Amino acid sequence: MIKEELITKMTEFNAGDPKQIQHLIKVYEFAHTIGVKECIDQGTLRILDIASIMHDIGIKPAREKYGNTNGKLQEQEGPAYAKIMLGEFKDISDEEINRVCYLIAHHHTYEEIDGIDYQILLEADFLVNAFEDRLEKEEISHFRNKIFKTKTGIYLLNTMFGLE
């Protein structure tokens, strides 16, 4: 039920921006699929689900404050908004909120990846961004070779983009 409520709240948060709403749905679905296929534990999957739904919550405030939505500004602005929204849910622990906020604050940071939830979030976001941004196969392959670690993420990326 939390996921459905969060998707609804994030849709309201991003009202008038269907591209952003569709992006979060796609990232969530890829992240969830990778998490399940990689057999991560239920607690980590719950955090991954929440973080993948909310990962771009910093875009709107970054746009409003700075007129710019680059990754670092998203990471900077997102956690405060996520903390407020997640605070409305009585069944999300402070520990879970802290981890989700950490993931939001690092979802464009590709070094010192500390956890399978972090790894999968990066992979799922890239799967969607590569398509939405119409990246060339060479760019996609380079990112895969540098960042992707999960068998499922690599398989999905290779299959989706026809990579070897």
Count of β-strands: 0
Radius of gyration: 15 Å
Strand content: under 5%
Could you estimate the helical fraction of the residues in percent?
over 70%
Task: Give a description of the structure.
This protein is mostly helical. 73% of the residues lie in helices and 0% in strands. The longest helix is centred in the N-terminal third of the chain and has 20 residues, at 18-37. It is globular and about 45 Å long. The mean pLDDT is 96.
How is the topology of this model organized?
Layout (H helix, E strand, L loop, with lengths): L1 H12 L4 H20 L4 H13 L4 H8 L4 H16 L7 H11 L11 H17 L4 H11 L3 H11 L3
Helix pairs in contact: 1-3, 2-3, 2-7, 3-6, 3-7, 4-5, 5-6, 7-9, 8-9
Summarize the structure.
By secondary structure, this protein is mainly α.
Give me some keywords for this one:
164 residues, mainly alpha, 73% helix, 0% strand, globular
